[in-house]
From TrEMBL:
Protein name: Flavin reductase family protein
Flavin reductase like domain mapped to chain residues: 15-159
Species: Rhodococcus chondri
Family: Belongs to the non-flavoprotein flavin reductase family.
Stored SUPFAM superfamilies: FMN-binding split barrel
Any one Pfam family match given in the protein's UniProt record, by short name: Flavin_Reduct
UniProt entry keywords in alphabetical sequence: Oxidoreductase
Enzyme class: oxidoreductase
Gene Ontology terms, MF aspect: oxidoreductase activity
Lineage: superkingdom: Bacteria
EC number, UniProt record: 1.-.-.-
Length: 194
């Protein structure tokens, strides 16, 4: 790269401070992951849209691509909910659905799309994909919201607070899991020799 990538990364850091739990269902199998890519993608208040960016390495990516549905959950920062929030984050962000069912470890109900709604989340929007953009290592999905609910009032969990409260051994495992994901992304972006 011929520019200052550190400056770019500092400029871009922290733009999306809320970790969200994404769930979906495809062919009868429910799954999900954590994401820091969530955003609103709407201008029309009566027709809300949401956007997420998923890495192709992750099983949830292929499932959303095939099923065309996702649920985006905000997590709660309130004292009586934060343990549940961290449990969701560690369950969905700590391993892959390729290695086994994660969703049955969490309290859920079924949404209008058939995808699981996490009952211990702060709130959610449920969406049907209306467009997607393939960007080599990831796909950016935009969905029309078809369901929404506030499940617990109060503040939403920010990623800084989450990292400060997550157990050190979980963070170390997450960092180790991140390496093959990063290698896969680099291979897709620059070619398999890099
Ligand atoms: C805080 C946090 C943010 C993450 N952000 C993203 C993201 O934006 N996109 C993504 O594809 N994965 C993201 N991940 C990684 C996935 O959650 C993780 O790789 C997960 O185990 C994938 O599960 P799956 O293979 O069942 O889909 C994030 C993980 C954490 C803990």
């Amino acid at each position: 790269m011929t520019f200052d990538t550190d400056a770019a990364n500092r400029a871009l850091a922290g733009l999306r401070p809320f970790p969200v739990a994404i769930t979906t269902v495809n062919g009868g199998f429910a799954n999900g992951l954590m994401s820091l890519s969530a955003g609103s993608a709407s201008i029309i208040p009566e027709a809300p849209r949401a956007t997420i960016s998923l890495t192709k390495y992750n099983k949830t990516h292929d499932m959303v691509l095939e099923s065309g549905i996702f649920v985006m959950h905000m997590l709660s920062a309130e004292d009586d909910q934060i343990e549940k929030s961290l449990e969701i984050l560690m369950t969905l962000g700590g391993s892959s659905g390729r290695d086994g069912d994660k969703i049955s470890k969490l309290r859920t109900k079924t949404g209008v799309t058939g995808a699981p709604i996490l009952l211990d989340a702060h709130s959610y929007v449920e969406a049907r994909v209306t467009g997607s953009l393939d960007v080599q290592e990831s796909t950016i999905f935009v969905g029309d919201v078809v369901g929404a609910e506030i499940l617990h009032d109060g503040g939403r969990l920010r990623i800084g607070e989450a990292w400060s409260k997550l157990p050190q051994d979980w963070i170390e495992q997450y960092d180790a899991n991140h390496e093959p994901q990063l290698a896969n992304a680099r291979a897709r972006r620059f070619g398999s020799t890099v």
